[in-house]
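@channel sequence for tomorrow's demo:
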Amino acid sequence: MNRRNFISQSIVGAGGAFILSNATASELTNSAAQPFKLNYAPHDGMFKNSAGADFVDQIKFMADQGFRSVEDNGMLGRSVPEQERIGKTLSQLGMTMGVFVIDGGDNWKISLTTGKQEFKDTFIKTCKQCVDVAKRVNAKWVTVVPGYYENHIPIDIQTSNVIDALRQAAEIFEPHGLVMVLEPLSDTPELFLRHSYQTFMICNAVKSPSCKILFDMFHMQRNEGNIINNINLCWDEIAYFQIGDNPGRNEPTTGEMNYKNIFKHISEKGYKGILGMEHGNSKKDKEGELAVIAAYRQSDSF
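structure tokens (generated this afternoon):
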């Protein structure tokens, strides 16, 4: 079946279950293959029931639905041939690669705050590996999570240790035009990096175009709220956004966050970058995948 016809037949077959904001099935179908206003990036597995288990087939399906980018946290762990295959597919489709995670193992992530040389060495080694991976998939952004708060070390010393490690990493990335995006998280209070304004301060101290903020709106809604205002405050250091409604960490329209207004605000500020869809699907199987597409059509209609 032609992928462009898939969503049309699936929506009609589902009896209009995904019609949002009083839109008709015909209206949603006619707009389904059009590019979204903003550059949303799905991830591996988000459309596996519609496109199959192979990530390349999923990427082709994403392109047919109007998505212009993808992201893949685990790209560093994929084989070189697989990375090259993904990069070739993205190039052929005119799509952009979003973030993948700088992952050198749990030890250095937990211990960057300590300032110990052995952990910084592992971090720097992994950063160098990321340069080659980024070239294969034409990526520009890599995610950094500094790790956990150390109770026995003053917070200012920990902050200084993290800044020192990031400055060394920035020296690796700058010649290649790569950007580390630091992600404050809400998974546990034990994490060192938890707030957008804290991350702004660190990026400002590193003073490199290769060290910016990944503003994950799900995490920031949980940790600090006041999303639009904090986006404005941190705007000069934000290079990447991620999406997830709260509660539930699923697609927009499933929680308390007014993503239509947030997207409109980000667009009006002139943002041209990627917004990663780092969330789950609120419904299972193909039904849930079509619901994700419909939710983004609704939220993107500002």
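heads up for whoever presents: Residues 79 and 158 are 35 Å apart (CA to CA).
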